[in-house]
Amino acid sequence: MEIEIKNLTKIYNKQRVLEIDNLLIDKGNIIGLVGNNGAGKTTFLRLMMDLIKSDTGIILSRGKNISKTESWKWYTSAYIDSGFLIDFLTPEEYFQFIASNYNIHSTELDPILCNFLLFMNGEILGKHKYIRDYSIGNQQKIGIIGAMLQRPDILFLDEPFNYLDPSSQIEMKRLLQKYNADFGTTVLLSSHNIQYVADICNRIIILERGHIVRDEHETTPAIKDELERYFIKF
Q1: 55 pLDDT exceeds 90?
Q2: Fewer CB within 10 Å: C terminus or N terminus of the chain?
Q3: What's the rounded Cα separation, in Å, for the pair 68 and 135?
């Protein structure tokens, strides 16, 4: 079992914004976390990265409590928002910094980055400017590439299709499928894009007001229509 969640709650301003009694995440799944704004998706991902503390409950990664050990950080990566970026660096410097933290030799970095050339679309490397001077879409690309550089066993992404042009969205989908197939990466992504979630995920979790209201372990070609019917009530 990759991740186990027990009796997890988070409260803001006396309001319970997340409550998950029990959730198990198996190795090698691509899991889509969907829900309307305010459903608790980003809060959930931040808890999974130990960026915020829960009010009750525990999150276990490979049997170890993530709040009491840092061992999970060596095989887990994430991109949630631009706060993950070091925006006074160039993309090259940022990627080198990440590589050095994970003992990726400089001679290994360029071949790894070659896997992302289609995704970068000639807009990232060699531009001689700081990350803060890139468009929001290209900052999103830089953050996602940074999260995938180490080829993590577990990858968390918050709205990875946001701000990307259609070609980049399609390439993002291909990259996630390739990482899952080639490295067995367990992916948990939140997204409003029902079409892409239905295309690439083999498990879909619907959050509503902080609660899991549906957990589809087997996706079918009809799942997109089912998701649309569910959300049409809103």
Answers
A1: yes
A2: C
A3: 37
pLDDT digit string (tens) for 99-142? 999 999 989 999 999 999 999 999 999 999 999 999 999 999 99
From 69, 72, 20, select the one nearest 209 (Cα to Cα): 20
Q: Which residues share a beta bridge with 11?
A: 16
Question: Is-contact 4 54, C-beta < 8 A?
Answer: no
Residues 25 and 27: their CA atoms lie apart, in Å, by: 7
Q: Distance of alpha carbon 195 from its chain centroid, rounded?
A: 17
pLDDT-based confidence at residue 234 (cuts at 50, 70, 90): low
Name the 3-class secondary structure at 205: strand
194 in Cβ contact with 224 (< 8 Å): yes
CA distance 48 to 223: 26
- Tell me the helices (H) and strands (E) count for the chain, helix number first: 8, 10
**Structure tokens given for 101:** 């933290």
Beta strands 76-79 and 154-158, pairing class: parallel
In the beta sheet, which residues pair with residue 9?
A: 19, 56
Specify the amino acid at residue 200. I
**Residue 212's beta-bridge partner residues?**
207
Could you give phi then psi for residue 154, rounded to 5 degrees? -130, 130
CA atoms within 13 A on the CB side of 140: 16
Distance (Å, whole) CA 179 – CA 47: 24
Return the pLDDT at 195: 86
Q: What's the angle, vertex CA 78, arms to CA 220 and CA 200, rounded to 5?
A: 15
* 22 φ/ψ angles, rounded to the nearest 5 degrees: -160, 130
